[in-house]
């Protein structure tokens, strides 16, 4: 059996009959009710609290923007299609449906007892996760950015002052790699939102590149390897203390084997640290609670969303901030890994995930695939280069 995936984002040619999905959802609901009747009231209260807690991980490691029922519904519609047609041959799948189905598989890995949970509670927990992390990263990110040269440019942990494109430190980090931030005229055009200088999710920001530097002739060098991005991920998934500059800098020097992984000046300044023999995570950390032992594309994408948002001057969380759509940004990063055009690009993504495992979990573990998206400029150019590699 095979599932043919369409690369364009248009709706599938054979939209599933709403009645089919309704039937599948009703079957699932009946199974839930049977389970509830068999459980006592005390167990239900315990499960409710547990499901809210499990809902948090959905946003952090599975999908930061897709409703829980949409994720489960995509699995149900495929199961119904297979039942009605004797398999999945002939099923048309668009990009969003592919993401939902991939999210379902990640959900099953982290919550194996999914069929016995209450999905409303999972959604309730998921809804709170992004806001909780926003509040935590807002203050923590001050230690994850370059130190300002002037006192007046320092970031306030309790406010958005001096952040965003007008911030002396954050403006450079949020600047798309296509633009020369050091050119005063270009910088002014970016800040003022002039035509042709929009800051959108179709352009990779400098904050995700190592040392915030981008080489258009070598688009993959340093991509998603910024120390600040790694620190945000460690703050969320392992522990705030693990994201300290000393810990992460030590890993950058000791664990780097490729030449591009090492800043020569940093290698001279930082002492070599002995690596701990254990790969276990701190008790109580998100990784430990959910038995997460390696990095995934969705964890990296979520950390990138939190990093970008907390560098901005937005006063409250919204998936769309001006011209910047965080759902598109998240999907661009996830698709780089999960929608690969071929083996060469899959290998690049695999190497990147292994690199992340060495930094987050202090060991080498592989995972997943690679590709880019249907975006403009740097995102589109990277995707074109991946396609060219396969050719």
Automatic annotation (TrEMBL):
<feature type="compositionally biased region" description="Low complexity">
    <location>
        <begin position="366"/>
        <end position="378"/>
    </location>
</feature>
<dbReference type="Pfam" id="PF20414">
    <property type="entry name" value="DUF6698"/>
</dbReference>
<dbReference type="InterPro" id="IPR046521">
    <property type="entry name" value="DUF6698"/>
</dbReference>
<feature type="region of interest" description="Disordered">
    <location>
        <begin position="269"/>
        <end position="289"/>
    </location>
</feature>
<feature type="region of interest" description="Disordered">
    <location>
        <begin position="366"/>
        <end position="391"/>
    </location>
</feature>
<protein>
    <submittedName>
        <fullName>Uncharacterized protein</fullName>
    </submittedName>
</protein>
<feature type="region of interest" description="Disordered">
    <location>
        <begin position="1"/>
        <end position="22"/>
    </location>
</feature>
<feature type="compositionally biased region" description="Basic and acidic residues">
    <location>
        <begin position="380"/>
        <end position="391"/>
    </location>
</feature>
């Amino acid at each position: 059996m095979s599932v043919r995936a369409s690369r364009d984002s248009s709706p599938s040619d054979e939209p599933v009959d709403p009645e089919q999905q309704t039937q599948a959802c009703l079957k699932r609901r009946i199974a839930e009710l049977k389970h509830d009747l068999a459980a006592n009231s005390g167990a239900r209260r315990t499960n409710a609290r547990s499901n809210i807690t499990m809902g948090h991980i959905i946003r952090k490691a599975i999908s930061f923007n897709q409703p829980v029922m949409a994720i489960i519904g995509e699995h149900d519609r495929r199961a119904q299609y297979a039942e009605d047609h004797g398999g999945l041959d002939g099923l048309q799948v668009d990009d969003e449906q592919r993401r939902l189905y991939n999210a379902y598989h990640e959900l099953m890995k982290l919550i194996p007892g999914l069929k016995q949970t209450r999905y409303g509670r999972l959604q309730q927990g998921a809804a709170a996760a992004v806001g909780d992390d926003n509040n935590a990263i807002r203050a923590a990110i001050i230690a994850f950015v370059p130190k300002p040269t002037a006192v007046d440019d320092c970031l306030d942990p309790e406010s958005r002052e001096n952040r965003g494109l007008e911030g002396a430190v954050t403006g450079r980090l949020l600047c798309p790699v296509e633009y020369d931030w050091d050119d005063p005229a270009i910088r002014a055009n970016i800040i003022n939102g002039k035509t042709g200088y929009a800051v959108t999710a179709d352009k990779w920001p400098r904050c995700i590149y190592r040392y915030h530097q981008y080489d258009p002739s070598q688009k993959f060098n340093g991509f998603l390897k910024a120390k600040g991005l790694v620190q945000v991920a460690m703050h969320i998934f392992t522990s705030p203390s693990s994201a300290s500059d000393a810990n992460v800098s030590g890993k950058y020097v000791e664990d780097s084997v490729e030449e591009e992984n090492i800043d020569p000046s940093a290698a001279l300044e930082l002492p070599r640290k002995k690596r701990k023999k254990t790969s276990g995570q701190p008790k109580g950390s998100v990784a430990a609670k959910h038995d997460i032992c390696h990095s995934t594309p969705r964890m990296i994408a979520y950390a990138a969303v939190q990093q970008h948002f907390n560098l901005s001057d937005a006063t409250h969380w919204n998936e769309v901030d001006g011209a910047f759509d965080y759902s598109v940004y998240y999907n661009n990063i996830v698709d780089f890994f999960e929608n690969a055009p071929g083996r060469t690009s899959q290998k690049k993504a695999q190497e990147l995930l292994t690199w992340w495992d060495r930094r987050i979990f202090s060991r080498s573990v592989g995972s997943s695939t690679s590709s880019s998206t249907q975006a403009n400029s740097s995102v589109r150019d990277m995707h074109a280069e991946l396609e060219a590699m396969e050719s």
